[in-house]
Amino acid sequence: MTPPTEGDTRTFERTFTPEDVRKFAEVSGDEQPRHLDPDDEGRLLVHGLLTATMPTKIGGDLEVLGRSMAFDFLQPVYTGETLTCKMTIEEVEDREDRYDLLAAVTCRNEDGETVMTGTVEGLVWKSDGRE
Q1: Looking at the chain, which runs of residues are DSSP E strands?
Q2: Residue % of the chain over a pLDDT of 70
Q3: Is 43 left (phi over 0), alpha (psi -120 to 50) or beta?
Q4: Which neighbouring-strand residues pair with 100?
Q5: Which of 40, 59, 98, 119 has the greatest CB tally within 10 Å of its CB?
Q6: How confident is the model at residue 128 (pLDDT cuts 50, 70, 90)?
Q7: What is the pLDDT of residue 33?
Q8: Where are the domains of the chain?
Q9: pLDDT, average across residues 4-18
């Protein structure tokens, strides 16, 4: 495991499908018509928390255990749109058994519009305990 470093930036790109939205609706129980009935262009409105899984994926790649996450949803996201999520580690505190970190998140649609911003606080263990 490589220790987290201030300034490290990771990105993840994803295009949500109608099937993604339907599965999330089923798992979350949020089955509002606004998410399950197509708009005039045949698209579904992606749940905000489904969009928020993008930084979760990046955090998982970095072995981050989230402690708190705060997101602002600025624009609607629809199926078929490609989003790019960027996470930048802003602070790292080196502790005896772990690294505590704070990261900033920005997700943009294919038109370059910011659809979501946020922060993630978490930790990365120095050892996974399996030694």
Answers
A1: 9-15, 65-73, 82-94, 98-108, 114-125
A2: 96
A3: beta
A4: 93, 123
A5: 59
A6: low
A7: 77
A8: 9-125
A9: 96
d(CA 15, CA 81): 6
> Above 80 in pLDDT, residue 104?
yes
d(CA 13, CA 83): 6
Whether residue 1 has pLDDT greater than 80:
no
Q: Identity (one letter) of the amino acid at 27?
A: V
Cα separations in angstroms, 29 against 5, 26, 44, 50: 37, 5, 16, 12
Q: Which CATH class is domain 9-125?
A: alpha beta
| pTM given for the model | 0.88
Q: Is 29 left (phi over 0), alpha (psi -120 to 50) or beta?
A: left
Q: Which residues of 26-37 are buried (b: 16+ CB within 10 A; e: fewer)?
A: eeeeeeeeebee
SS3 per residue for 98-124: EEEEEEEEEEECCCCCEEEEEEEEEEE
- Tell me the C-alpha distance between 46 and 78, whole Å: 5
Question: Which tokens is 66 given?
Answer: 């989230």
Both structure tokens of 95: 């502790």
